Amino acid sequence: DAGVIQSPRHEVTEMGQEVTLRCKPISGHNSLFWYRQTMMRGLELLIYFNNNVPIDDSGMPEDRFSAKMPNASFSTLKIQPSEPRDSAVYFCASSSQGGGREENIQYFGAGTRLSVL
Amino acid sequence: QKEVEQDPGPLSVPEGAIVSLNCTYSNSAFQYFMWYRQYSRKGPELLMYTYSSGNKEDGRFTAQVDKSSKYISLFIRDSQPSDSATYLCAMSKISGNTPLVFGKGTRLSVIA
Hints:
heterodimer; A: mainly beta; seven-stranded mixed sheet; four-stranded antiparallel sheet; B: mainly beta; five-stranded antiparallel sheet
């Protein structure tokens, strides 16, 4: 398997523009997580889905952020309008709900580095 | 106070040294403990995964969990320049496929 695939790898945009980040989880995984990493705050959860259903979005900063998972193989994270403080690396991770504890491991994509000017 | 505290370093050691990385946490509900390694401009990759208290060894890496002290450690023996990376501790309450709470990471440099 190719692992978790995120696109784009880098995004530079101007304040006020809409930004869409994309994620393809590992085939067969039914949990998907969006995290954001900054120097100040480290890696923090934004939202996660189980079986395509959003379970916890308490980490989403504000209404400018939205996430969808229309099917088991695709998710998007959208920021509209974007602001300079949204500049960060955004990671997507996926995992499976296996019967054994060792199966419940989160695998991360390479991330999208977002710069909002 | 953050739920998980981790010294950000940086930590610089000579090749062959034993490295000790640590995290403390405040929430006694955490049951699953992980260490991720993150190379520059890459995503985190799982290094070690432990449940509850005890030790786990995998090659040059040993993970320890002391729930009574709310303290976890990662030891790297015979450190190599290729171990130079940021090490993130992570933990969760229910199982590894529920949201993880991360430490901020410790940047390690192993000097040849």
